[in-house]
Amino acid sequence: MRQQIERRAARGRTCGRGVTLVEAVLAVVVLALAVPPVLSMSVEANAARVNAALTTRASVLAQAVLEEVLADVVSDNASLGFDALADAGYADTVLPARLNASDAPGAIAASSGLAWTLEVGDLVSATGEADSDAALNAYRLVTVRVSYRSAGGASIVMPVSAYMGDL
Amino acid sequence: MASNDALGRRRSLTRAGVTLLETVLTLVVLGIVAAVLAPVAASAGDAYSSAVRTGERFEAATYALERVQALLREIPPGSVPGEVGIATLSAGELIDSDGRGVRLRDGTLWLVEGADEFPLCREVTVFELTPLAKDAVTDTTGTPARTQRVRVRLVADGVEACGAAFIRARIGNP
Q1: ipTM higher than 0.85?
Q2: Is the CB of B170 less than 8 angstroms away from the CB of A109?
């Protein structure tokens, strides 16, 4: 084996046997097979990057909505406060009208293709379950659902929840 | 193996190395492959670099927004019950009674800490603070002590970020 290699090497040096056409074409074919997967990896990395930005955008929006709800819950304004949370129109009309007005967080997120809905849960006690003693049921679970389309076109819903109390 | 050796020997005896025709053919094939792949590679490269740039701008704007929101949440209570300690409130500037705040000057958003300023975000074209009273409607720009929540909108290097901050000092002090 070793002799064979030496003989070949010697022949390569003395006779100058170069690269044949078949070898060159093979090399090109191997390259052609190897390059597209590498490119597709970079495309996938791009999509991941876009999705990360969308996730951040969605969480900024969810935070803005929860912040607004918290401010409303603490407000002693006649039309707001903890009791107003459960009003039929609050989650569907009052808050969207305010947050989706131009230059408000909802409208700006909407221009990036994000939409949100608010769901207000039933009265529960500090344990998260309704207590038989009605006086202890002073909390509501507030859930913001931000929905958007990922870079791949998949529909994604990001739910963010917080307990709001009758402070 | 043996046939390969025989072939190699015959070839090495008759024509050593690569002929001009083979070289040209290889170049032509390489050229065709390159022509097919070049647009794909170029577009992938462009998309990647623009995504990286957009990501950086987006992160800078989001980070600035979060810092401003954190600052607004921590605005101290005022000396009078039911008021908050905002010392200065004007377009693009908010300083609380502890001397902490945020200010837009020369296209840069600055975090203010007493007499010191730290750059928070550059190339800021829009920085709007909308202070609202507890009814969520009344603008309290003229009476900052009555502020209960603040809307923040900033555009940095073309990226728009918008959030809201509820002043925590208002809890239990509506």
Answers
A1: no
A2: no
